[in-house]
Write a structure and sequence with these properties.
Strand order of the largest sheet: 3-2-1-4-7
CATH architecture of the largest domain: 2-Layer Sandwich
Shape: globular
Helix content: 25-40%
Order of helices and strands: EEEHEEEHEHEEEHHHHHEHHEH
Number of strands: 12
Number of helices: 11
Number of domains: 2
Structural class: alpha/beta
Length: 340
């Protein structure tokens, strides 16, 4: 979206960090995008990261036609555990370079507005709450499916955020006997088996074992170069090995979804993230396995459907905005209560 002329009314800005790209979004009071863009970023020192964020914010405001004084709040999400009070990074396999540094403090000082930060899975859940599945149901689960498998929950219209800066976590459940090592330090986690890296590993092992598969052609006979997009491409071309890999992934996800239904009885389970646009390959199997594995469903005592998010790339940034808007609203209510 290009420059649209100076806007007098205030705006909120959301920043959504992925593994390699960062997204900037601007809205007014509703989840209707005034501006959205995606750019790559470089990992470095905290100072370098803050420089890139500030450059992105300033460019977004200029392109959207807003003065800096129009900014009312900033929400940020990252693939790491964040101290919700200080904005400091507590832990993240790809974000250890920011450990202990606050994402929010330098921005709050520069722009003089409330700034909040949280893990990307919580932000994605806020996005669905505000602009996605939350429009039609107030009890649902979120699976963020991409380079990792994260989770979120909305119960009775409330996004679940746990004490100690924690959050719902389904991706490190174990639903098979495999011993694949996971980035969390445990073994056999679903996260290690069904995400981008796991799908690629399934493909590499198939090529290494000598199976007849298009993957051998796609990787040029070098198993170590197999990627998850190659597996999906092979499946599109009718490759039996690639289709079997995706079937296995879908079965594991279906078992997980059955466990989620048994635990919290959501109306929907929404898949978001980098692999959500590939859901056509797996949704039918996920739903079938979920229903077959959950007595609450096959006895029709409850109902649940696994669906793909309709928000695409925008969900995380919208969720970060939703969270900072809610934080501002709560602060205003607290001030009114004190003034009484």
């Amino acid at each position: 979206m290009g420059r649209i002329g100076m806007n007098a009314k205030g705006c909120f800005l959301g920043i959504d960090f992925g593994k390699t790209n960062v997204r900037f979004a601007i809205v007014k009071d509703e989840p209707k995008l005034e501006y959205f863009t995606k750019r790559s970023y470089d990992r470095g020192s905290p100072g370098e990261m803050h420089r890139q964020i500030i450059e992105g914010i300033d460019a977004a405001l200029e392109e959207a036609g807003y003065e800096q004084s129009s900014l009312r709040g900033i929400g940020i999400d990252v693939p790491a555990v964040v101290n919700r009070d200080s904005g400091a990074i507590l832990w993240g396999p790809d974000w250890d370079f920011m450990a202990g540094a606050s994402l929010t403090k330098p921005l709050a000082e520069r722009y003089r507005v409330p700034v909040v930060a949280d893990v990307d899975t919580v932000a994605a859940t806020w996005g669905e709450y505000w602009a996605g599945a939350g429009k039609t149901c107030d009890r649902f689960a979120v699976l963020t499916w991409g380079t990792g498998l994260g989770a979120g929950l909305v119960i009775d219209g409330e996004v679940q955020e746990h004490p100690g800066n924690l959050f719902p976590e389904f991706g490190h459940s174990r639903v098979s006997d495999d011993e694949w090592p996971c980035m969390c330090g445990a073994r056999g986690c679903l996260n290690a088996m069904v995400c981008g890296g796991g799908i690629a590993r399934h493909g590499r092992e198939a090529v290494q074992s000598g199976k007849e598969t298009i993957l051998r052609e796609l990787c040029g006979g070098e198993p170590g170069t197999v990627t998850s997009p190659m597996v999906f491409e092979a499946a599109e071309r009718g490759d039996e090995v690639a289709n079997a890999i995706l079937e296995r992934v879908a079965v594991l996800l279906g078992r997980l979804c059955a466990n989620v239904v048994l635990t919290v009885q959501p109306e929907k389970i929404v898949i978001v993230g980098g692999l959500a646009d590939q859901c056509d390959w797996v949704l039918d199997t996920i739903n079938r396995v979920m229903r077959e594995s959950c007595w609450l469903l096959f006895k029709e005592l409850t109902a649940c459907e696994v669906v793909a998010s309709q928000l695409g790339d925008t969900g995380g940034a919208l969720g970060a905005i939703c969270k900072v808007r809610r934080t501002i609203g709560q602060s205003e209510l607290e001030r009114k209560e004190v003034a009484k």
